[in-house]
Specification:
The complex is a heterodimer. Chain A is mostly helical. Chain A contains eight helices and three strands, in the order βαααααααβαβ. Helices cover 23% and strands 12% of the residues of chain B. In chain B, strands 5, 6, 9, 10, 11, 13, 15, 16 and 17 form a nine-stranded mixed sheet that branches. In chain B, strands 1-2 form a two-stranded antiparallel ribbon. In chain B, a hairpin with a 3-residue loop joins β9 and β10. Classes of the chains: A mainly alpha, B alpha+beta. At the A-B interface, α2 and α6 of A face α11 and α15 of B.
Chain lengths: 217, 559
């Protein structure tokens, strides 16, 4: 087992991540304007930008889902209990003791078990909730009856959006743990990160050139 | 010295003359509520294929109006019968949905309360001649319809609608009491030959001669119809804009054999038909009948979304941002209780409201009571399915149940036929029959001793009014608060002045009182509280975690 610097976040993954980030922040800002939480932009501007960003995000998600399934990278999000407890214990206890993070990135497991579980639930629960309720909200005119139904659609949409904001807060905070904040952000910018490779993996990656690898300096 | 004194004296006199002398109030008897200074026509219809000045039948001389009508009917053979079959003649509308007898012939309103029994005054706005009090009134009620036969068609007043010279006017067919009978003094006699040769399709001032002055004065009743619409600018009404489209009323209120679309008694609150086939729709005066069911171009998210509103929000709600915008005030409150006060036995007026165009309005009249006016008013918004429920003269109500809705209406978010409409809401305190709990007919106009506009005696006026209507009266009257609702549909603003979204999509917006549906931007405040709790919890969690990290790291460093 040796640590190597390889391309873990391909160009598409970085594009997807940062585009999604920009869209989600815009959606949060315009969504809060629609709700009247702030009045920095007008209602019509907020609705217009929110709608276009939502449609763009849905398109991006469809593209990303396709990408995950065709490249097999969806496996990174498979939930596992193996090592989950160790990571949870680290954040709740070990981190205060100055312990090292118990998880080492592997070529096929670039997320630690807690991370994978968090991202998976985001993708399977919060994103679909906000996406489907948003589409229902947008298409209100086609199904809407005068009852309180729109209120419930809005409730699901708004609460899942706030939950996503809470996730974003935790997500950004966790970048400050372990190495420096910059160290954590860098892989999502350059794509390269330290990964533990088995000799076989290393040999395969070298031989095939399937994934870019930097020689240890 | 003498010269100096003389100059001072002269200057003093000049100053005294310049300061207006104590303004002499117009006599209380002044009933000139339709003073029209500008009698020139507002628009000219040049599309006609006939030049009426060339017809020898119209060369005159004509002795009176009916003589002109006979000349008109010689060519327009069916026009008389058509008019006599129309609401403008019958003043009666039987509601097909409720069977209620509506129309001015029957209804009680909350302005001058009733046409019935006051026809001598109210019939100024009836398109007829030959008013005969003995024939047309009395215990049996109005008999206009009985005159609908070939022999009486000359009673139709063609000129009031079709004179395009401005030289025609109508006076009340009967004398009023001295207290209110001063009208049209000093008007030039009508040159019937001239007006007969000037006929054409009605202009705004023809319809406006009655409809601008409903309720007893300019703009009093409707809030969206007043004399400012004779020559409106674009900001006041984008369709009638005198320098722009310059629409006549009949451009929207299309006619078919002298029957006009867009009656208040038969309201289309939600038009689902749209434009129909080209030239086909003669039945409605809705916005949709010209603009279609998707009135905004589908070229942006906002406009697509606006088109989505059409099924639940009337066009008028956004496109008429305020009522009475033309410098003419509309009346919002009327209190009959104060009527009848006199100064040394003589009725008087107070003019404590000056409207936008500079004209003073009466805030008190002995013959009517006290008034409140308003301009640039925000309408009252409500769900409306087009069905009004009138409190008619025979409707019994419970005065303890709060204000009586003269024309209540149905509509709710749950009712798919209802849309959100703007209304002018008129609030009045008026007499009612305390024994029978019904509204009353008052005999206001007349030169007899029973007329309120003369004797200032509610008891006698109500007794006489009910008698003339053939209705029971307990003999005891009281006062009850009434409300009437006038759907707003004129004074359509240019699109750039239409309401912005957040006029309604906000917490304390225009629709804050309509609670029976979810309105984005207004409702679900609890969601934000839960959301902020969630986000606050996350912030607290990471903050606490970070603090513990810093604190434990210090502990380790110290160790």
């Amino acid at each position: 087992m040796s640590t190597r610097i390889i391309m873990v976040y391909s160009r598409f993954e970085r594009f997807w991540h940062w585009t999604q980030m920009a869209l989600i922040f815009t959606l949060l800002f315009t969504g809060l304007a629609v709700r009247g939480v702030h009045g920095m932009i007008g209602f019509d501007t907020a609705v217009t930008v929110h709608t276009w960003c939502a449609l763009a995000l849905i398109a991006l998600w469809l593209l990303a889902i396709f990408w995950h399934f065709t490249t097999g990278t969806w496996r990174h999000y498979l939930p596992t209990t193996q090592g989950l407890w160790a990571v949870a214990r680290f954040y709740a206890w070990g981190i205060f003791k100055g312990e090292h993070h118990p998880y080492r990135k592997a070529y096929w497991r670039k997320h630690n078990p807690l991370q994978a579980l968090a991202y998976l639930s985001l993708k399977l629960v919060l994103f679909p909730a906000v996406w489907l309720s948003g589409l229902l909200y947008l298409a209100y005119d086609f199904w809407g009856t005068a009852g309180g139904a729109l209120g419930w659609v809005a409730a699901v949409h708004v609460l899942s959006a706030y939950a996503i904001l809470a996730f974003v807060i935790a997500h950004i905070y966790l970048l400050t743990t372990g190495h420096s904040f910059a160290e954590h952000v860098k892989p999502m910018l350059t794509g390269y990160d330290e990964v533990d490779l088995t000799p076989v993996e290393e040999a395969y990656l070298r031989e095939s050139g399937a994934v870019a690898m930097k020689e240890p300096s | 010295m003498i010269r100096k004194l003389a100059v001072m004296l002269w200057a003093g006199l000049w100053l005294a003359a310049a300061v207006p002398a104590q303004e002499t109030p117009p006599p209380a008897a002044d009933m000139r509520f339709r003073i029209v200074d500008d009698t020139t026509p507002s628009q000219r219809d040049s599309s006609s294929t006939a030049d009426h000045t060339k017809f020898k039948e119209l060369q005159g001389p004509f002795a009176d109006g009916p003589a002109v009508t006979r000349a008109c009917l010689a060519c327009h053979t069916e026009a008389g019968k058509q008019v006599q079959a129309s609401l403008h003649w019958t003043w009666e509308y039987i509601d097909p949905r409720s069977g209620a007898k509506l129309g001015k012939r029957h209804l009680v309103n909350n302005f001058c309360t009733n046409a019935r029994g006051n026809e001598g005054m109210c019939a100024q706005c009836h398109a007829s001649y030959g008013w005969d009090e003995k024939k047309d009134f009395g215990a049996a009620g109005l008999k206009w319809q009985e005159r609908v036969d070939a022999g009486s068609a000359e009673h139709v007043d063609c000129l009031v609608c079709h004179d395009r010279s401005g030289g025609y006017y109508k006076v009340p067919p009967t004398e009023g009491n001295e207290a209110c009978s001063v009208m049209f003094e000093g008007k030039a006699p009508i040159d019937f030959a001239k007006v007969a040769q000037s006929v054409g399709a009605p202009g705004r001032e023809n319809c406006g001669a009655c409809h601008f002055y409903g309720g007893g004065g300019d703009g009093v009743k409707h809030g969206d119809l007043d004399s400012s619409l004779k020559r409106p600018d674009r900001a006041l009404d984008v369709h009638m804009d005198a320098k722009g489209l310059n629409f006549a009323c009949s451009q929207c209120h299309v006619s078919d054999r002298h029957r006009w679309a867009g009656s208040r008694y038969n309201i289309t609150a939600k038009d689902i038909e749209g434009t129909g086939k080209p030239g086909m729709r003669r039945d409605v005066a809705t916005c949709e009948s010209c603009h279609g069911l998707q009135p905004h171009p589908n070229d942006s998210v906002a406009r697509v979304k606006l088109n989505d509103h059409v099924d639940r929000v009337a066009c008028q709600t956004c496109h008429i941002p305020a009522m009475a915008r033309g410098g003419v005030a509309t009346m919002t409150q009327w209190d009959w209780r104060t009527a009848g006060r006199t100064k040394e036995g003589v009725g008087y007026k107070e003019h404590d409201y000056t409207q936008g165009n500079g004209t003073a309005r009466d805030t008190y009249k002995s013959i009517k009571g006290s008034f409140v006016y308003g301009e640039n008013l925000t309408p009252y918004y409500a769900w409306f399915d087009g069905q009004m429920q009138y409190t008619t003269i025979d409707t019994r109500f419970d005065p303890a149940q709060g204000p009586v809705a003269i024309n209540g209406f149905s509509g709710a978010a749950a009712n798919p036929d209802a849309r959100i409409w703007p209304f002018k809401r008129m609030q009045t305190v008026q007499p009612y029959d305390k024994g029978n709990n019904t509204l009353v007919y008052m005999h206001l106009w007349g030169d007899d001793a029973d007329a309120f506009w003369g004797n200032y005696d509610f008891g006698r006026a109500i007794r006489a009014g009910m008698e003339r209507g053939g209705l029971p009266y307990s003999g005891e009257y009281g006062f009850v608060e009434t409300l009437s609702y006038w759907p707003i549909t004129h004074m359509v603003a240019p699109k750039e002045n239409a309401l912005a979204c957040n006029e309604c999509h906000s917490r304390d917006g225009r629709l804050s009182e309509l609670k029976d549906f979810y309105l984005p931007g207004r409702d679900g405040r609890w969601l934000d509280w839960i959301g902020l709790l969630l986000v606050g919890g996350a912030l607290l969690g990471v903050g606490g975690h970070a603090l513990l990290r810093v604190w434990s790291a210090k502990g380790r460093a110290a160790a």
